[in-house]
Design goal:
10 helices; disordered C terminus; 33% helix
């Protein structure tokens, strides 16, 4: 692709779509040409807010718009398979929000479809594109803390404090509690600790997990212990009933890296090497605010211009490996979604 503006379509108009659009507007080599929602008035309001020329009241019109280079799918994850699949079948490249799909079967279907259509496909795991997270991984890969022995990561929020809560409780129809929407802590929040552990250690060889389930059958909080045959362990936790520190720590045979609150979009981390003073690594102010989604957008545009069908930062096999782990955890804690065909491993 020539060095010109990459033309984006935005599919869905919720909070994450708005955040992504706001960052796209600030990139000189990106252009939002269309937005789609199943509610025409929502698409029109979004288009007016971000200066988008075309507002579609259905997904199909966006998927078949020939002026779009890539579609950002920002629907609830229960609709990712349908929305991303529609776009891929129409010949569009796709960036699909995390968690990639409800289960491995759906994820594998999308990857297969992208390869059949010879289209670019990437999960919007913005953590993997974050410059400071990339720096942390490079240090670990270079042996800065020796061989990794343990990874710890947590992501919990106090659901009862969300604006949608009623009398301190999220209503059963809320997306975080509704099985039909892939509710629960694991897919919405736990995907980050799991993805962080697998970024550093790859796919685990063993998985144990326990959870507290809601009356609807989704997980209110889940803890999992991942193990690798080489001797490493990862302890990951997620919750929608209590706010945690959202921290991470990586311990090796010669040191440790601590990531403070917001480990998936950190502003700093501290490297402790045996026999040395701690070293702090801070985010470069030039990289923008820690909440910026522009890095994943820039990676997509770089890959498209290079003619790549997937990103080396967020490879499809890595996405499938994370989905295998999430499926296995759900199998162990007994969470099932309507029409779910869980194919667990380990």
């Amino acid at each position: 692709m020539a060095e010109q503006s990459v033309r984006w379509g935005i599919l869905a108009t919720g909070g994450i779509a708005a955040a992504f659009a706001a960052d796209l507007v600030g990139l000189p080599d990106a252009e939002i040409v269309a937005v789609a929602s199943r509610r025409p008035e929502s698409a029109e309001a979004f288009a007016e807010r971000f200066g988008v020329e075309r507002a579609y009241g259905d997904w199909e019109s966006l998927a078949t718009d020939p002026d779009i280079d890539v579609v950002y799918v920002a629907t609830p994850h229960s609709a990712h398979r349908a929305a991303a699949g529609l776009c891929l079948e129409a010949g569009r490249n796709v960036l699909c929000e995390k968690p990639f799909t409800l289960n491995l079967r759906e994820a594998d279907e999308l990857v297969t479809l992208a390869r059949e259509q010879d289209r670019f496909l990437m999960e919007a795991m913005w953590m993997y594109c974050n410059p400071l997270v990339r720096r942390l991984k490079a240090l670990v890969d270079d042996g800065a803390i020796g061989d990794v022995r343990t990874v710890q990561a947590d992501f919990g929020l106090a659901g009862h404090l969300l604006p949608e809560a009623r009398n301190g409780v999220l209503p059963p129809a809320h997306r975080l509690r509704d099985p039909a929407l892939g509710g629960g802590a694991l897919l919405d929040l736990g995907v980050y600790p799991v993805s962080f552990a697998q970024l550093l250690l790859g796919e685990p060889d063993g998985i144990a997990a326990r959870a507290v389930l809601s009356e609807e059958g989704v997980d209110l909080q889940t803890g999992a212990l991942l193990s690798w045959d080489g001797g490493a362990l990862a302890s990951v936790h997620c919750s929608i009933v209590g706010g945690t520190g959202v921290t991470a720590s990586v311990t090796g045979t010669r040191g440790r890296i601590d990531v403070p609150s917001g480990f998936f979009h950190p502003d700093r981390f501290v490297l402790h090497r045996d026999g040395r003073d701690p070293e702090e690594f801070a985010a470069d102010p030039a990289d923008g605010p820690r909440t910026s989604l522009r890095h994943e957008a820039q990676e997509v545009m770089r890959a498209l211009r290079a003619g790549e069908k997937e990103s080396p930062l967020v490879p499809l096999e890595g996405t499938l490996a994370v989905m295998r782990t999430l499926d296995a955890v759900r199998e162990r804690i007994g969470v099932r979604y309507p029409g779910d065909a869980v194919t667990a491993s380990a």
